What does this fold into?
Amino acid sequence: MTVRMDAVGNIFGRVEGTDSDAPVVAAGSHIDTVPTGGNFDGSVGVIGAMCAIQRIMAKGKTKNPMEVWVFAGHESSRFGFAHLGSRCICGFTEIDKWKNLKDTTGKTVPEVLANRGLHFDQIAGCKRDASKIKSFAELHIEQGPILEDGNLNVGIVTDIAAPIRLSIKVKGTAAHSGTTPMRSRHDALVAAANIVLAVRQRANAEASKGIVGTVGYMSVKPGAMNIVPGDVEMWVDVRGNDFDLVSSVIDNIKADAQSAAEAEGVKVEINTISSSHPVHLSDELIKLSEDACKEQKIPYTFMIGGGGHDSQEIGQIIPTVVLHIPCLKGVSHTPEEFASIDDIMVGIDALTGLLEKLAR
Ligand SMILES: [Zn+2]
It folds into this structure.
């Protein structure tokens, strides 16, 4: 392969086909992870793509060129936004917003890139010409229990669910925990606790329609044993594959937050951090993936992808599919994350079959 890195740190490995004008058949994923994350999320799709292309090339050159894509900055854990690299490939950049975001050490996105010899001021040039790309496929661990529970090897993802995320700030009155009578308290954390429960109840009410809702972060200030909390900030993540339903759950949570605040005599400030639309993946690639599984007698199913993938960006400009493989007990983003080499190889068999159909 010839290998290059673009200005934001995406890596592209390319093998030429026999027709230099034919559009690229691409596959890949990301190799970054979250703090205390596992070894398989993302990496399986990068190594899988390399392995699949190597197998195909061993049988002789294809018509179309093939590329392995390794996305930079997939996870949102460092700067609070996800899919930096894939969004640059699609041209979905937010340069003014991104350039001022800081990580917990105070470094900005441009500074972090510069430390790696990369160039924030050139990221607009990372956009790929979609007309020259035929397809993109991402092999990925499921990060959920459906395949393992069903004894299935491949989950062909038809839609990727997307989150609406809120920041909810609760402003109460910090006060002495010993001298402030219960009746005169405006405890930000008590209101916040009720908002957390409201997120759970609203998500439970629509769970049969694929809605999930989580409060995954909270800060409590001043944050001392002997002070009634005055300020709380929490981040809410609600997702599903029906944008209107996700929106209505969010509206209900906002109303519940107002009621919880009024009951405690505190104020809430609600801001939408991000609002993404679910993405339907390529019907043609879904069909070809199914054919590849059937031909190799690989047990498969169709599924909704609940985790965020770079494919939800790429899928907006290039025909895209995601193939899930089982992972142990469905756990991910922890060191216990595990996929067996046998399961990975069956996933690579499916990916190989798919890429060969596309490129040959
Ligand atoms: Zn991932």
In short: DSSP finds ten helices and 15 strands in the chain. The chain has two domains: 2-161+278-359, 162-275. The mean pLDDT is 96. The first strand starts at residue 2 and ends at 5.
